[in-house]
Design brief:
Layout (H helix, E strand, L loop, with lengths): L8 H9 L4 E2 H10 L6 H13 L3 E4 L2 E4 L1 H11 L13 E6 L2 H18 L5 E5 L11 H12 L4 E5 L4 H10 L4 E4 L9 E6 L2 E6 L2 H13 L3 H12 L5 E7 L1 H11 L7 H7 L3
Parallel strand pairs: 5-6, 6-7
Antiparallel strand pairs: 1-3, 2-3, 4-10, 5-8, 8-9, 9-10
Helix pairs in contact: 2-3, 8-9
Amino acid sequence: MFNSKHQSTEDKLISLLLNGEHTVAELFKQLNQNGHKISLQAVYDAIRQLVSAGVVIKQSKLCSLDAEWRIKTANILSSTPSLPEPLEGEAQTFNFNSFNSLDTYWKHINALLTRAVPDYPVFYFVSHEFWVYQEERKESQLDFIKQQTSKRSTYILIGGTTQYDKIYKERFRQYRQIELSEFTPLKRHEHLTVCGDFVIFTKITKTTSELIDKIYQESVNETELTSSLQKIFTSKQKTSLVIKRDASLAIKLRKQISKNMYLPKEEREKWKFF
């Protein structure tokens, strides 16, 4: 599917043609250089399919994306879904049966939150930042961290001080301000996202949260840590995501998360965090 992890030859050709016109020979060369081993005949066949579907125009030897198709597609994609917006003091809950499904929906909500509350700094709490060890979602997680930092300030409180929590802080301190502390009144099985008046609770079971704590404390190295966490990620897990709109609660949680953090004066004055 176009612009997804699983792309056909046609999808890859569209991606290349987004940058301008190319001959079939040039497209063949670029596909193979990018690791997509394919024959020249297969490229010709895929181009014919795209021409037939009205996606590509072939003039002489040059292939380009059909302008009408580009405009229609852009119009469709510009119609953005809206963020669930409960009334002040109310909440909406979404239930899932796996960590992957929970993480996918959490990122979906965060993307919408970025549009709904542009530029507002985000505050997070997690017991451990184990989400970066999800093999199926690892690339998505790393992209999310880098892209988010380019748009707004990010503050994260991690409720652990194991060697792996320290490794995470060292690897990602360039992208976000990170504080490690085992002493926090926040619930370890409820991870938090606080932005503006919105609070997002990402919930796992207490039993699973305690198991993850044990894995972080007892793993000999990152390989063992990753392997043990994968067993949790790939098993059926009761999880949920709650979106709440509560200005007073958001202020309280920002205070708790940022207690030992440095918040620039200009941000404090602009956004009135507390």
